[in-house]
Hints:
By secondary structure, this protein is mainly alpha-helical.
Amino acid sequence: MVHTERAALIEDLARLDEEQWRQPSLCDGWTVHDVAAHLVDTARTTRLGFVAGLARARFDFDRQNARGVERERAASPAETLERLRRVASRTSTPPAPLDSRLVEEVVHGEDIRRPLVLIRAYPPQAVVRGLRLQLRTPASFGGAKELTSRVRLTATDAEVSVGEGPEVRGPALSLLLAVSGRRTALGELDGPGLGALASPTGPAA
């Protein structure tokens, strides 16, 4: 499934012009080109390499990611795209659950596609596995486990309903994006728990 998502994104990126590569993504401060470079970096990441890189970044995840983008962002979009093609079939992973690779590909895929108004029909299983992982992963590791003690998140297009409290309903993809900090997805959700999800203390801040 990870390889399928990488291949689909490569196909979309191959159709972009230079201006589209320069467009801001949903990742604050990153362009489409930057996100593509980040995906090259994460595809290359091994367990040992991740730990060593994090130590060099003084255990600052943001600094580590920024260094990875700087390292893998080539001088031209075409070269960065070629780097992504070369790593698309890799199976290396950082010391994290394998489903974290699905979160990486789906969420960052939307970080690129949504600003460019590109639509992908993601395999439901990939989205659901990514959503379930985010909802059992602590916020300190990029997840939203703490949120499930305040609201119940229910997918309207999949058999997923996790958490306790007022309900938030919507497509599984929108829920995945929202709990991954993408506020743009909040408008696709509804329910009495939406205010708690959208609050500054929530994962969507």
